[in-house]
Design goal:
about 375 residues; 2 domains; 13 helices
Length: about 375
């Protein structure tokens, strides 16, 4: 069975024919109406050579004859050609409402590109419930956030490679220079090259089944016999945070049953616990509440947004900063379980060295190069 591919054109005005156009069907219809390829070509304002060549090419592609090629006779469609036209008319008639709706959706989507007041910002970020809420709010103000959720390391790497305008990642507040977070992000972020923008504070903790049957109070309890843990992938900010907390508590990852079991998001970890496939996993409070789980808070962390310094003056970034500084966004952020905007400095351009104090530059001694 031959497959169908759809395409569209951008033009100042719609054509009178509101259906999906296909050049083969247009040619077949013209040939049948005009009775010759030459007349059909003139009707379509095309050359005879072009129409004749196109018909031959379509016959080869479809492996069926389309025209009865009797010299000196009126051009006629083969039975297969007639059936093609009939099938197309039937499909167009049945699908006309859906076609019109699809065209309208595409036109509305493209209207953003022609709206000088609208902005699109591509954001690669660690999975976060507040970002999803921000996307919905910003869209009503003609700021469209094209968000792709991925691990923090991959998000910043994408920013540095020019694949996005902004990245989102999260760390403990004031992580030390020898922390796992410092080891992970130090070489990815550089003062003078990147600009940090405040976004949110959020709780990270252990999501557990209702009534906390294993009586989990901290990461040291994850090594108890019979408990099944579900982890996030290496390179995600939550995996970095877990390893940080385990190192601080002196707990070996090898002693946690399920440490190598991975899920792609906070929601997926929560679902695994809710379904009984696991007993605990590190994540955000919003995901736990959404699945009816209990939540054991462990740390309050900063969720950062970062862009290149050169992108800071650009209109989409400035529009996002204005949105983050709005009173409405503060209300939305405070309404999310486990989030706080009061002290998060949302929308403020922050010092990279102050927030992530990992870079120490020794001053050259006098007389030294």
């Amino acid at each position: 069975m031959h497959k169908v591919e759809l395409s569209y054109l951008l033009s100042p005005e719609r054509s009178k024919d509101t259906l999906i156009r296909n050049p083969l069907m247009d040619v077949l219809h013209a040939v049948r109406e005009q009775g010759s390829i030459a007349k059909a070509a003139r009707e379509m304002d095309l050359s005879y050579r072009h129409v004749w060549g196109a018909l031959k090419k379509w016959e080869q592609t479809l492996e069926r004859p389309l025209i009865v090629w009797d010299k000196g006779q009126r051009a006629q469609l083969t039975e297969f050609g007639e059936k093609l036209l009939w099938a197309e008319r039937q499909a167009q008639a049945r699908l006309a409402p859906q076609i019109e709706a699809l065209r309208g959706d595409i036109e509305r989507a493209f209207s953003t590109a022609f709206d000088d007041e609208a902005h699109v910002l591509t954001l690669y970020a660690s999975h976060d419930a507040a970002l999803s809420a921000l996307r919905e709010q910003a869209a009503t103000r003609r700021l469209h956030l094209d968000i792709r959720f991925m691990g923090s390391v991959d998000a910043i790497a994408a920013l540095n490679a020019g694949r996005c305008m902004m990245a989102g990642f999260h760390t403990l507040a004031q992580p030390g220079s020898k922390s796992i977070a410092a080891q992970t992000y130090r070489n990815l972020l550089k003062p003078g090259l990147h600009k940090l923008i405040g976004f949110a504070h959020r709780q990270q903790g252990l999501m557990v089944a209702k009534n906390n049957p294993f009586n989990i109070k901290g990461v040291t309890d994850l090594a108890q016999p019979g408990l099944r843990y579900v982890n996030r992938a290496a390179g995600t900010g939550t995996r970095v945070l877990l390893d940080e907390l385990l190192a601080q508590a002196g707990v070996a990852a090898s002693g946690i049953n399920g440490y190598d079991t991975q899920e792609p998001s906070h929601g997926a970890v929560a679902q695994a616990i809710a379904s009984g496939a696991a007993d605990a996993g590190l994540g955000i409070e919003a995901a736990a509440r959404d699945k009816g789980l209990d939540f054991v808070p462990l740390v309050l962390e900063r969720y950062h947004l970062v862009c290149l310094k050169s992108a800071l003056p650009e209109a989409p970034v400035q529009a996002l900063i204005a949105e983050l500084q709005s009173h409405h966004w503060s209300i939305v952020l405070d309404s999310l379980p486990g989030y706080s905007g009061a002290s998060a400095q949302s929308g403020e351009v922050l010092s990279l060295r102050a927030m992530l104090p990992w870079w120490n530059y020794r001053k050259a001694k006098v007389g030294k190069a």
